[in-house]
Amino acid sequence: MASLALQLCAFAALTVLASAIPISKVPMNGTVMVTSLMMGGQKSPAPSPPCTAMDLGGGCPVLQAAEDSVSVSYSFPAAVVKPGSYVSLTACYSATSSYDRAWRKPNPNDFTKSKDCPYKFATKLPVPSGNATWHVPEKIPDSTIFIRAWLWNQQPDGTFKQANFGRTKTYLEIKKINDIPTSMKGAVIACCLFSPIMVAAIMCYEKYVKKNI
Ligand SMILES: *[C@@H]1O[C@H](CO)[C@@H](O)[C@H](O)[C@H]1NC(C)=O
Ligand SMILES: *[C@@H]1O[C@H](CO)[C@@H](O)[C@H](O)[C@H]1NC(C)=O
After folding, report:
1. What is the pLDDT of residues 156-196, one digit of tens each?
2. Are 105 and 117 in contact (CB under 8 A)?
3. Any transmembrane segments, and where (predicted)?
4. 89 CA to middle of ligand 1, Å?
5. Is residue 6 lining ligand 1, measured as CB closer than 6 Å?
């Protein structure tokens, strides 16, 4: 009985270990390049040489959240592409921008649980190469980012697995949208104060007035 329990335990431990894939075990054969940037309505070329500054204010091109965009091209060597494969693209926080923030932490021991690439902006893209544009979303904090491409290969059981990747050498800086204007804050506070009264009024109306119409 005890040995059966032990065997089950070992089996469970092995399955957990087997399903966790460290990023160092995933080959990196992809190339991802910034082809152009749209900043303030103006098209700019990619930083050349690539900007390696991960700090805010480090001199990388600054993209305004909700306004600007970055276009990238990706490609994977034919040898790593399988029939039915596709590519997905994500924007990822730099090590500096994810440092000390559990909710953005990369997980080097199991990349499927990594939280450093929350901005998936394109998927089911063609192999082995293509282009896509990331419109910087509204809800993103001040940060430095890079773009990662994942190659998804179809498995014998029909599911897809991240089999290979590539990333931009360059970092880009993201400037979050301005804080809510003071007048808006006032409106929000007013709403919060008055909404219980509004709810009471609506309930009152529903209960007494509507009934008698
Ligand atoms: C892919 O990259 C790995 C290292 O990550 C290398 O060993 C391998 O030869 C590369 N394969 C191809 C097809 O380029
Ligand atoms: C991607 O864009 C580049 C430059 O903008 C272009 O030269 C290339 O042909 C495009 N590739 C694909 C697969 O569309």
Report:
1. 999 999 999 999 999 999 999 986 666 666 666 666 676 76
2. no
3. 186-205
4. 20
5. no
The closest-lying atom of ligand 1 relative to the alpha carbon of residue 27 is: 5
- Ligand with smallest separation from the Cα of 78: 1
| Ligand 1 close to Cβ of residue 77 (< 6 A) | yes
Calpha distance 11→5 (Å, rounded):
10
Binning the chain into helix, strand and coil, the percentages to the nearest 5 are: 30, 30, 35
Summarised one tens digit per residue, pLDDT across range 77-125 is 999 999 999 999 999 999 999 888 888 888 878 877 888 999 999 999 9
Q: Which residues, judged by CB distance below 6 Å to any ligand atom, belong to the binding site of ligand 2? A: 35, 73, 129-131
Amino acid, res. 44: S
Phi-psi region of 84 (alpha: psi -120 to 50; beta: other; left: phi over 0): left
